[in-house]
Amino acid sequence: MTKLLSAVAAILLAGSLLFTTSVHADVIELADDHPDQYVVVRGDTLWDISGTFLKSPWLWPKVWSVNPQIDNPHLIFPGDVIYLVYINGQPQLRLKRGPRKLSPEIRRTPLSQAIPTIPLQDIKSFLSDNLIMDREALEKAPYVVAGVNERIVSGAGDKVYARGKLENEQVVQEFFGIYRPARLYVDPDTGEELGFESQSIGSGYLKAREADILTLTLKRTSQEVRKLDRVLPTPEGKVQSVFFPSVTERPLEGKILSVLRGVDKIGQFDVIAINRGQREGVEPGNVFQVYKAGEQVVDPVTKELITLPSERAGLVMVFKTFDKVSYALVMRATSALAVLDEVRSPR
């Protein structure tokens, strides 16, 4: 947790990368209109604050100076002051705690009051509610065949029956998620199947198992459970909500596959899917620049159809990865983005 801000904030800075014509790994560039100090207010994110001071997001760890006398210096709260100093001619950012209202009985500030790296409300549901699985895994997963009394749809508190074989490691598990396949992702360049996106619509307890028939009692539902919905083990571990900014180990290029909220034009804080994932080495926190394909125009002299260069138009940060697909949040967009726009790791 003590490393929260270094990573978190660096990622935030990535937004200003769009407006930097070149990034040099060892050169610290301050924003042209940077302040000498900034007072954190409620509603700020570290991304916003970082972009206030720096042009190059990757250099945040180099300029963040930790004061060992401050508890949890990597957590920033409303009222705190971030100020700029120069050490040996190099800029550094430091933190000064703002006023705190302390009760005589307890002197702790809840971590939930610390400002987040990014607007978590924009990705909260996608962190835990969506899965992308290959065709074989989807076809092997048990599926709902009926509700009690042959109900077509079921909700929380109802009993449902599913058919299928549980894998050995799943037999001892008692709690399962109910997922509905939503779409098949296909690579726009190669035609390869990348996986089926499935949305969580509920969860329930396994109450009985007889041959290949499973009996489950639904505990939670966000939609009505229907026939052919899949029964899958719930993901293990805590949901990741802190992201360490980074670039991919090797240069990567890809395409935007979809925008998950179903809009036509993609803007800031929309969630997108890209056709690169764990297989290519993509990790949560990786940042990609978005390029709009250049327009095709007719050469006025030769009358040839030519394609203009691609234009940089946005910046996205990956927050969840699967084997061949990743989800990313649009942190900055200088124009409306669209499906099939290119994504490239910054170099």
UniProtKB/TrEMBL annotation:
Keywords: Signal. Residues 36-84 form the LysM domain. Residues 1-25 form the signal peptide. The keyword Isomerase does not apply. Gene3D superfamilies: LysM domain. Pfam families: LysM. It comes from the Bacteria. Coiled coil: none annotated. InterPro entries: Bact_Kbp (IPR052196), LysM (IPR018392), LysM_dom_sf (IPR036779). PROSITE patterns: LYSM. This is LysM peptidoglycan-binding domain-containing protein. It comes from Motiliproteus coralliicola.
